[in-house]
Amino acid sequence: MTHGFDDTAQDRRVRVQGEPVESYPRLAPEAERGAVRRIAVVGEEVLHRPCREVTDFGTPELARLVDDMFATNQAADGAGLAANQIGVDLRLFVWDITDEWGIRHVGHIANPVLDEVPAGYRRLVDEYEGCLSVPGPYRVVPRLDRAVVRGRDKNGDPLVIEGRGYFARCLQHETDHLNDRLYLDRLTRRERRSALREMGESRDEVLARRAARARSLGK
Length: 219
Fold this sequence. Notes:
By secondary structure, the chain is an alpha+beta fold. Helices cover about 30% and strands about 30% of the residues.
């Protein structure tokens, strides 16, 4: 998922893995350590099949994957990134996003499951949404304005993440990825065709910007 926040801001409230922290670097440590990988684009098979559960926790390989996902998300100026977007069909995603209330959320989750929102609390909000695997276009997508996702961290410890507003949208968007759905699949056929045409026109420019940003990060 793509974002629109100002990543030059200095004074932020930050929640890492759902917990508040007193200070946090502008570039997440995982992004500092990780390597940038290629992002798959709509139409590639890995994006269109359900992902496998993560079963091996606490391994160097899983830690490296999380680091690389953070680095790739940062280089692409993203808000969140799912593992299958870099060609790894595991139920895992990362996020680094600032919500409407100025709170920065940073973290990762494996094997996420979204809670069912009680009927009395279900409120759909129509907002523009983009995707790193659909480089360029944004379209209006209805999403619930609250989300709770349960899963595990890279060490296998239980994790519960709650989001409102734009962060809730991100949690739903990334969970969709792991279930083989892109935001395009939530559009009408006409809107989808329009978005794909726009992607064809803007893709090269978007990818060039990402490459330049990766170089500026020393990646």
